[in-house]
Amino acid sequence: MKFEAKDDVDIPIEEAFDLLSDYDVFERMAMRRGIDVRRHDQDQPVGVGSSWTVNFDWRGKKIKMDAKVVKHQRPDVIQLESVMPGMDVDVVFDLVALSRKRTRMSIQIESAAKTLPMRLLLQSLKLARGNIDRRLQDRVEAQCRNMEERYAQKMAVDS
Fold first, then answer.
1. Would strands 61-73 and 102-113 be described as parallel, antiparallel, or unpaired?
2. pTM: predicted TM-score of the whole model, two decimal places
3. Crossing angle of helices 13-20/129-158, nearest 10°?
4. What is the DSSP annotation of the chain?
5. C-beta neighbour count of 55 within 10 angstroms
6. Residue 143: which pLDDT band, with cuts at 50, 70 and 90?
7. Which long-range contacts (CB under 8 A, 24 or more apart) does 53-61 make?
8. What is the dihedral of CA 16, 19, 20, 21, to 10 degrees?
9. What is the pLDDT of residues 103-135, one digit of tens each?
10. How many Cβ atoms sit within 10 Å of the Cβ of residue 128?
11. 10, 24, 43, 152: which has the highest count of C-beta atoms within 10 A?
């Protein structure tokens, strides 16, 4: 099953890639939501091969997910591959320069079930697709506004 969303940011593509690559920010956001995030190679810069173990509760069950960066191609693409019991999820962030100061960010999430219970879960998600697409789009728009705020703060500090 595939989900997609996109939005534009008033940030140059290189800066947008740097902000999107600031994984510490996303780790802290997840931790504030009660998600346990542990990076495996904290002493290394983030790039291809960087990996995390993520533990979270979902519908009363504890889920362990292993995630790793499989593509980190500046300034265009970041691809993450996640594996959890019964399901694989690939997430691709794609950046396209619309102008010198404007970038389009799109996210594609593709999930593949490996077990019958996960196939049933994906089937139920298909029934709620409109709601899920809308929520994903809202989250992407919120992240884009967050990136613009972080960029503005960085520019204020640099000047």
1. unpaired
2. 0.87
3. 110
4. -EEEEEEEESS-HHHHHHHHT-HHHHHHHHHHTT-EEEES-TTS-S-TT-EEEEEEEETTEEEEEEEEEEEEETTTEEEEEEEETTEEEEEEEEEEEEETTEEEEEEEEEEEE-SHHHHHHHHHHHHTHHHHHHHHHHHHHHHHHHHHHHHHHHHHHH-
5. 12
6. very high
7. 54/30, 54/82
8. 120
9. 999 999 999 999 998 888 888 888 888 899 999
10. 10
11. 10
Listed residue (139, 150, 132, 136) closest to 25, CA to CA: 150
* Cβ(70)–Cβ(48) below 8 Å: yes
- The one-letter code for the residue type at 139 is R
What number of residues does the chain have?
159
Which amino acid type is present at position 59? R
How far apart are the C-alpha atoms of 85 and 25, rounded to whole Å?
26
